[in-house]
Amino acid sequence: MSRILVVDDHAIVRHGVRQLLAGTPEKHLVGDAANANEAIRKLRAERWDLVLMDVNLPGKNGLEALKQIRIEWPAQKVLIFSVDPEECYALRALRAGAAGYLTKTSPPEMLLTAIRRIVAGGKYITQSLAEKLASVVGTNLDRPPHENLTDREFQIFGMLAAGKTVSQVADELSLSVKTISTHRSKVLYKLGLRNNAELIHYHIRQIPRSAMAIREESA
Questions:
Q1: d(CA 81, CA 90)
Q2: For 5-17, how does the pLDDT look when each residue is reduced to its tens digit (9 = 90+)?
Q3: Which is it for the CA torsion 68, 73, 75, 77, positive or negative?
Q4: Shared-domain flag, residues 72 and 127
């Protein structure tokens, strides 16, 4: 029996994954957590074969949680399961130690394949992601400025580029307005921008349009 911890702030997603796993021949014990802190508590209390985790969690985001998990439990397998396209977070997640990355637009069968492969000790990335990774291996091109943002800064950068105000971002991430304002200032500085209008234009030029479309649909 495999033990799988589903970490997502949307109850319907947690329920959907539970139902999907219940319909497979294998036996699964499924736990869930609505945020990173709850997930960390459950990891400290019990053993889990796989953590299936979203990126956009309230408070500490999924990539920050992933880094903490890798410090406390270096062998823990984590599959990032996000609404964001591979272009946004996949490389960051893999660099941080994720065993795989899958978008929520993927077919259910693909999610089951990823879970089975990772639980068995393997890794999972899609063919399209493998091709993207291959295209950057060995290149000597300078990284674009947004690659120098921290995971939290990159998350806030995307939310501001989607037209959300500092207050809205603070509310969604359960952080203070002052904290978000500080992150915004750092993002503008690192990208060499002056205001939100320039930030939005930069995002349109540099980040795939599919990322913006999915964020807007999920807002």
A1: 10
A2: 999 999 999 999 9
A3: negative
A4: yes
